């Protein structure tokens, strides 16, 4: 169903940019705070398990305390917290102490604004657009957390599996319920088998369980038939960028690098251009 608001393409794009930048600002908060909350929880549980007194307080959650400068601790005024605009007129510095604000903030806001404007203008405002955006926002958060911390939180990957199964059942935009269930299973097991094989040969673990769960979520959303495409694109992109990083930045080939962001990119591309990709790969295969 398309909700026709009678807006021109330009108005839809502007609406997408404003709405997307606000969501992007919220995604930044999740990206920064969720790993801190998880680490506090793990430390608390580990201390309890070891019988050590734990005073890890739940001092931070997604909504409180209010945002503050990581350097001087000054609370950020609402006027200095406007997505994209504040970063520009503050020239990327804290209004109080002048320390640099991470470039991640405007990049995530800009990316989210661009993705939202893209779906609004290309597909209109519909149920499918809103679900595509939900999937895209989760992928943006997962990819960035994985790049920063090398973790893919279960708190996002597992609900994403269930939501994907639900979407196939109630809407069937990308996959039938059968394709979705098989997709979740194949998504998980395919990477898990690659990890087992890799471990057998090299004795090392090349991938984390978070990658399997993320791939299961992608399979649940897009169906089992998209999993080979997702793995092909993510491995190819990962290999190319990995080699470039080793060649140009002297990245140590033994040090880990996150595979999650490549899965996220492959999942997003496969959602939006599934038919074209399947046609392309069937050409290449025969
Ligand atoms: Zn400051």
Describe the overall structure.
This protein has 2 domains: 1-125, no CATH class; 130-286, no CATH class. The chain is built from 10 helices and no strands. It has helices at residues 9-49, 85-89, 104-123, 127-149, 154-170, 177-202, 209-222, 227-249, 260-272, 274-285. Helix 5 runs parallel beside helix 7 (209-222). The structure holds zinc ion (ZN).
Strand residues, percent: under 5%
Taken together, the total number of domains comes to 2
**Termini Cα gap:** 37 Å
Find the structural class using helix and strand composition. mainly alpha
Q: What are the segments in which pLDDT stays under 50 over at least 5 consecutive residues?
A: none
SS elements, strand count? 0
Query: What best-fitting shape do the alpha-carbon axes yield?
Result: globular
The secondary-structure element order is HHHHHHHHHH
Per DSSP, the total helix count is 10
- Give the mean pLDDT: 91
Largest beta-sheet characterization? none
The proportion of residues forming helix, as a percent range, comes to 55-70%
Question: What does the radius of gyration come to?
Answer: 21 Å
Instruction: Give the distinct bound molecules.
Output: zinc ion
């Amino acid at each position: 169903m398309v909700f026709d608001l009678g807006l021109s393409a330009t108005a839809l794009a502007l609406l997408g940019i404003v709405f997307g930048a606000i969501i992007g600002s919220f995604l930044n908060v999740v990206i920064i705070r969720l790993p801190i909350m998880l680490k506090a929880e793990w430390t608390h549980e580990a201390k309890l398990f070891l019988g050590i007194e734990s005073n890890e307080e739940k001092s931070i959650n997604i909504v409180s305390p209010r945002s503050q400068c990581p350097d001087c601790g000054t609370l950020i005024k609402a006027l200095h917290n406007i997505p994209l605009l504040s970063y520009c007129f503050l020239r990327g510095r804290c209004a109080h102490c002048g320390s640099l604000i991470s470039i991640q903030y405007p990049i995530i806001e800009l990316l989210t604004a661009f993705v939202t404007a893209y779906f609004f203008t290309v597909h209109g405002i519909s149920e499918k657009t809103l679900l595509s955006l939900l999937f895209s926002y989760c992928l943006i958060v997962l990819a960035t957390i994985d790049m920063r911390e090398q973790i893919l939180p279960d708190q996002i990957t597992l609900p994403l599996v269930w939501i994907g199964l639900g979407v196939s059942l109630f809407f069937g935009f990308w996959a039938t319920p059968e394709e979705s269930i098989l997709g979740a299973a194949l998504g998980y097991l395919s990477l898990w088998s690659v990890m087992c094989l890799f471990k057998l040969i090299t004795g090392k673990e090349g991938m984390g369980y978070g990658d399997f769960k993320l791939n299961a979520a992608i399979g649940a959303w897009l169906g089992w038939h998209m999993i080979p495409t997702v793995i092909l694109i993510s491995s190819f992109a990962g290999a190319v960028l990995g080699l470039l990083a080793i060649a140009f930045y002297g990245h140590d080939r033994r040090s880990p690098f996150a595979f999650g962001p490549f899965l996220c990119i492959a999942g997003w591309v496969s959602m939006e251009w599934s038919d074209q990709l399947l046609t392309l790969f069937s050409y290449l295969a025969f």
